[in-house]
Design a protein that fits this description.
- The chain is an alpha+beta fold and 308 residues long.
- It has helices at 16-27, 42-52, 64-74, 101-106, 112-125, 149-159, 167-179, 241-251, and strands at residues 2-7, 31-36, 57-62, 90-95, 128-136, 139-141, 144-147, 188-192, 198-200, 203-206, 212-214, 217-219, 231-236, 263-269, 271-284, 287-307.
């Protein structure tokens, strides 16, 4: 089996020593090349090269942004007329970021050493699972995407350089973005499958549960969402402080959020259209894509094989 290990040396929990241990362990099971990313988009370039060269496996060692880049590199653009999933490398992940939502969602432990043991065992036993992905126009997302408030938070964190991205930083930026939104939070028009359009204030899309983590606590916006079903939609009609505190309390509970009158919440959705008269931020898998006035979100089944 031919494989490439993609290492993001800037990720929160990656170290040269950890990289060397991981590479040595993998080299005992596969024919391995190791590549460290040097710039934004580099992981996507490595993923595209792995597919072009017919490699069997790509191992991403970094955060959710690294995983997203690898996936978008391995697969054709999500809005291609004919998207083929034939002859794709398999994907494996060794967590190296601060949240590692995708890695945890597919079944890897958050500790990189423990995750390496799980990966080696999966390779020896030829164990894998097939998962679906979400698409936001031409971009794939593995576990979440969003337009509005959550994307504004990502944009705010991106503007703060030289600081480690952790729960405290995200919480502070979320509070600041709530009270002083960069885009004055325009209304969004949301259309789910063939339902009547609804007016909402923000749109959160999930391809797995949980949607994210606050430290060690999972944030569960769509508890019924999974890699084997369609995407989930969580779109508040109002973002007044009482509603927001209620959403947060339920999202951090073991049961997760439940449908409410001031909320559009759906599971197992095939397509979602979101439009706005003014540009709003879009994020995929915790990475800022930019500003959009319209985005088409889709669920794509059986798109990727993950070794776990």
């Amino acid at each position: 089996m031919r494989a490439v290990l993609v290492v993001n040396p800037q990720a929160t929990a990656t170290t040269p020593g950890g990289r060397d241990v991981l590479a040595h362990a993998l080299a005992s099971e596969v024919k391995l090349d190791v590549v460290e990313t040097t710039h934004r988009g580099h992981a996507a370039e490595i993923g595209a090269a792995a597919r072009a060269e017919g490699l069997d496996l790509v191992v991403a060692h970094g955060g959710d942004g690294t995983v997203n880049e690898v996936v978008n590199g391995m697969l054709p653009a999500a809005d291609s007329d004919r998207v083929s999933f034939a002859d794709l490398p398999m994907l494996a992940v060794v967590p190296g970021g601060s949240a590692n939502v995708f890695a945890r969602a597919v079944g890897y432990p958050p500790d990189p050493v423990e995750a390496t043991h799980v990966l080696l065992e999966a390779l020896m036993l030829e164990r894998s699972r097939r998962i679906g992905l979400g698409a936001a126009d031409d971009r794939w997302f593995t576990f979440s995407a969003g337009m509005g408030w959550d994307a504004d938070v990502i944009a705010g964190v991106d503007r703060i350089r030289g600081k480690e991205a952790g729960p405290g930083l995200y919480t502070r930026v979320a509070v600041r973005s709530y009270f002083w939104p960069a885009h004055s939070r325009p209304e969004l028009t949301l259309t789910v499958d063939n339902e009547e359009p609804a007016t909402v204030r923000s749109a959160f899309l999930s391809n797995a549960d949980p949607w994210s983590y606050l430290g060690s606590r999972p944030i569960r916006l769509n508890p019924g969402c999974s890699f084997e079903t369609g995407i989930g939609v969580f779109a508040p009609r109002s973002l007044d402080i009482i509603s927001v505190l209620g959403y947060l309390r339920r999202a951090l509970s073991a049961a997760g959020c439940k449908p409410g009158k001031r909320l559009v919440q759906r599971d197992d959705v095939r397509s979602v259209s979101v439009t706005s008269e003014k540009p709003v931020n879009l994020q995929v898998d915790g990475d800022l894509v930019g500003e959009r006035t319209s985005v088409e979100f889709r669920s794509v089944a059986d798109a990727l094989t993950v070794v776990v």
